[in-house]
């Protein structure tokens, strides 16, 4: 019987030692003209908090010994309250490893953590032009919410 790709995926909790991996991925994306996953300041804060906060969730996916994706979430966001909602901060899979169940595995693990804590939903903000991510999130059951994110450039 042929093994499904999902069975080859191993995940583990994010640790500070994984920071260089995330920074390397971000640098590669910048070099290819992609968007930063995190601004440097936010990333440093996230790394510091993930080790000390019981509400931050971070997992890295591996195929063999190669890190191929990660997910970060917050189950008690201090900047967003009023709903029983966990926030999916970021989900990323290396382009050459997409469509193999890795993103699905990572997001399902975040869903399980959110459910375990009694939260009722997961929210995420996504760039509206990121059609690949939007399609994936729709496949995972996400729907447009009643909120719209607005911004104004201040010069």
Note down, in words, how this protein is organized:
Helices cover 35% and strands 22% of the residues. The chain has 155 residues and is an alpha+beta fold. It has one domain: Gcn5-related N-acetyltransferase (GNAT) (Aminopeptidase, 3-Layer(aba) Sandwich), CATH 3.40.630. The chain has a 5-stranded mixed sheet, with helices on both faces. The radius of gyration is 16 Å and the shape is globular. The chain starts with a helix and ends in a 16-residue tail after the last helix. The relative contact order is 0.14. The mean pLDDT is 78.
Name the descriptors.
single chain, 155 residues, alpha+beta, Aminopeptidase, five-stranded mixed beta sheet, 5 strands, 35% helix, 22% strand, globular
Summing up helix and strand content along with how strands pair, one would put the structural category as alpha+beta
- Using the alpha-carbon principal axes, give the shape: globular
Beta fraction of the residues? 15-25%
User: What is the count of β-strands?
Assistant: 5
Major pleated sheet = 5 strands, mixed
CATH-level-2 architecture = 3-Layer(aba) Sandwich
Tally of discrete structural domains: 1
How do the helices and strands line up, and which of them pair or pack?
Blueprint: H1 5-8, E1 9-13, H2 19-31, H3 40-52, E2 56-63, E3 66-74, E4 85-93, H4 102-116, E5 121-123, H5 131-139
Q: What's the short version?
A:
The chain has 155 residues and is an alpha+beta fold. 35% of the residues lie in helices and 22% in strands. It has a single domain (5-139), classed as 3-Layer(aba) Sandwich (Aminopeptidase), CATH 3.40.630.30.
């Amino acid at each position: 019987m042929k093994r499904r790709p999902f069975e080859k995926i191993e995940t583990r909790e994010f640790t500070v030692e994984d920071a260089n991996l995330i920074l390397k991925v971000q640098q590669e994306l910048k070099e290819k003209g992609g968007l930063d996953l995190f601004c440097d300041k936010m990333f440093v804060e996230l790394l510091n908090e993930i080790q000390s906060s019981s509400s931050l969730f971070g997992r890295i996916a591996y195929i063999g010994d190669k890190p191929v994706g990660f997910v970060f979430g917050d189950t008690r966001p201090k900047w967003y309250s009023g709903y029983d909602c966990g926030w999916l901060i970021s989900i990323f899979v290396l382009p050459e490893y997409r469509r193999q169940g890795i993103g699905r595995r990572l997001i399902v693990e975040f869903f399980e953590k959110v459910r375990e804590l009694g939260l009722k939903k997961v929210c995420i903000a996504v760039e509206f032009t990121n059609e690949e991510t939007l399609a994936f999130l729709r496949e995972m059951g996400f729907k447009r919410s009643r909120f719209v994110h607005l911004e104004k450039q201040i010069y």
